[in-house]
Specification:
This protein is mainly alpha-helical and 579 residues long. It has helices at 2-31, 38-59, 63-84, 89-94, 98-117, 134-147, 159-165, 168-181, 185-210, 216-228, 230-237, 241-259, 268-281, 290-308, 312-336, 338-349, 365-368, 381-402, 414-433, 437-445, 447-450, 452-469, 472-500, 506-510, 531-540; strands at residues 404-405, 408-409, 523-526, 545-547, 569-572. α2 runs parallel beside α13, α14 (290-308) packs antiparallel against α15 and α22 runs antiparallel to α23 (472-500).
Length: 579
């Protein structure tokens, strides 16, 4: 029954972010003074997982051994806190704000579980895919980290190199989740994606409540725009896990910093620590977006420095520190991950960064702010022009109306400034690159992430006006319209998935693991008709050498395999007939 599947996935997803926080918070609480902020603990957890993955591949130590050592160290430090620093346990859990946040997080997870599972058939795996193959890379690469040896079992491919040059930390995160929850990596990818997505929306809801002064019910729906708009659902169905993880870290850092009362008084050790962790967390993101991600963080720190300084000297001092912290992060990346930096430069300087089948037109900015627009994959600048101009005018009005106090930018408006700036940058990228893949990836990374700030800031400004005039019912009406728009957008996402979902029969694909037990064969030729079927079949054969007559992400294929019988080889030609 689907209700049982939804409950299972919900339960799994609810545990993931708390584990990441735990693995970052315990070492920081035991070793750092004062108590580390919650955001710093999350950054530390993801950075630790990324560093373990990179270290495992660089020095050729089994990933599971490093995980066990990591767990032992965390357990030892937790025991130390309990035995010798018991008074600090209150600090350890004191930064978690309690019931409303937990309710938002769990509710988002339930909603995302439904969105993923409802379009599937009873015989399918518990995930929805509309044609993108990133998910299968995560499944195979994470399984290799946990169970593989040498270079892996794909002919002509060294999976160690592939993981090191790709989204290293995100692949390690899936392996970490599979290890912690004792799941097959096929079953770990989507709970991971759901948990990280829900945490991202929860950050947005927390910001909307605390700094935009919205009630928790309204803040809940504003946060939901981040993951339940039609564009976000499309993003989710494509399983852009690395991007989603990095979005979580970026929004957590920016919203945490924006929420601090005075940048002048911010402990610069915390900013320096975040910058160092940020350097390791770039292992989580698609390499072509390393520098835009770090540049976004640097620009935000610079904006805080300029707008929070009480005196010209303090402003210059803050700005110098922001530049130094970001430069230090870049230097650390360059010194530690030289080969990956080379990959980044190669991607950035390649004339064509397009991907087959992903020639996408400009994204209608109305979709960024959660409006249930019709999904258009071939839009032009003229189609989106009215929305762009309207959003910029409204954003400028909101900043003018509520963003300036004592000639300084209110921290509550900072994410709105980030959104408007990223929107302008996105338009510039589209004008330069046209309908290619990288402009769409940028749209999914930045404008869509901070699009909620426009609606949230509008409610912040208009609610204040309406409360002063006593017309509370108008505020209630605006909030109700937001709820209706959110439901409409979610419904559109589910209908999109029902129309485009690729079905993968679970029992038949899992039966492919039996090829590893057949001693009479050495090679398995995967000759399935669809690209997606070939990619998923790869995950279930761990030991036999895999070869492909047709294209996969691992190469163009070797059609000569169809005409030549390999000695001691077997073919997978139909999943439903697999033994």
């Amino acid at each position: 029954m689907k209700i049982v599947d939804i409950l299972i996935v919900t339960g799994q997803a609810c545990l993931i972010i708390p584990f990441v926080w735990l693995f970052g918070a315990v070492p920081l609480t035991a070793l750092a003074r004062p108590k580390p902020p919650f955001v710093l603990s999350i950054l530390s957890g993801f950075a630790g997982i990324s560093a373990l993955t990179w270290l495992s591949l660089r020095v050729n130590i089994e990933f599971t051994i490093l995980l066990y050592l990591y767990e032992a160290a965390v357990a030892a430090l937790l025991a130390y806190l309990l035995l010798r620093q018991r008074h600090r346990i209150a600090e350890f859990v004191g930064g978690i704000d309690k019931f409303p946040i937990a309710c938002c997080f769990i509710a988002y997870i339930v909603g995302l579980s439904c969105v993923h599972i409802l379009p599937t058939l009873p015989t399918d795996f518990r995930f929805t895919s509309i044609g993108n193959n990133d998910t299968f890379i995560y499944m195979k690469a994470a399984d290799f980290l946990l169970n593989g040896h040498g270079a892996g079992n794909i002919s002509g491919i060294d999976l160690r190199t592939l993981i090191l040059e790709d989204v290293t930390g995100a692949i390690g995160f899936v392996a970490f989740v599979a290890h912690i929850l004792q799941l097959n990596t096929v079953d770990a990818v989507y709970p991971s994606l759901i948990s990280v997505s829900a945490a991202t929306a929860t950050c947005a809801a927390c910001f909307s409540h605390r700094w935009l002064k919205l009630s928790w019910p309204i803040a809940f729906f504003v946060g939901g725009i981040v993951i339940f708009s039609l564009f976000a659902i499309y993003h989710l169905y494509c399983c852009f896990l690395s991007q989603t993880i990095f979005n979580l870290l970026l929004i957590a850092v920016i919203l945490d910093a924006a929420g601090r009362a005075e940048f002048n008084d911010l402990d610069k050790r915390i900013v320096a620590g975040i910058s160092v962790l940020f350097a390791f967390d770039v292992l989580l993101i698609y390499p072509a977006f390393w520098f835009p991600a770090i540049a976004t963080y640097a620009a935000f720190l610079a904006m805080l420095a300029v707008t929070r300084g009480d005196t010209p000297y303090k402003t210059i001092s803050n700005l110098a520190f922001a530049i130094a912290a970001t430069s230090g992060a870049l230097l650390l990346v360059w010194l530690t991950f030289r080969k990956r930096v080379d990959v980044v430069f190669r991607l950035m300087t390649t004339a064509n960064l397009d991907a087959a089948g992903w020639h996408l037109g400009i994204m209608d900015p109305a979709g960024f702010i959660g409006l249930p627009i019709r999904w258009v994959e071939t839009a032009t600048l003229n189609d989106a022009g009215i929305a762009i101009v309207s959003i910029l005018i409204l954003g400028a009005f909101l900043i003018a109306a509520a963003g300036f106090k004592e000639r300084r930018l209110d921290p509550a408006m900072a994410p709105l400034v980030v959104f408007l700036g990223s929107l302008l940058l996105y338009v510039a990228i589209w004008l330069h690159d046209g309908a290619v893949y990288r402009q769409w990836k940028f749209a999914a990374s930045y404008p869509s992430l901070f699009g909620f700030t426009l609606i949230g800031s509008a409610l912040f400004v208009f609610n204040g006006m309406l409360e002063r005039s006593g017309r509370i019912w108008l505020s209630t009406l605006a909030s109700t319209q937001l709820l209706v728009a959110s439901i409409a957008s979610i419904s559109g996402g589910v209908l999109l998935a029902k129309a485009r979902n690729v079905h993968f029969p679970e029992k038949q694909f899992r039966s492919l693991a039996s090829f590893d037990t057949r001693s009479e064969i050495n090679d398995v030729v995967i000759d399935l008709p669809s690209f997606q079927e070939r990619m998923l079949a790869i995950v279930f054969v761990r030991q036999k050498t895999l070869r492909f007559p047709e294209p996969t992400y691992f190469g163009a294929g070797d059609k000569s395999l169809l005409a030549t019988d390999l000695p001691k080889a077997s073919s997978i030609t139909q999943v439903k007939h697999a033994n």
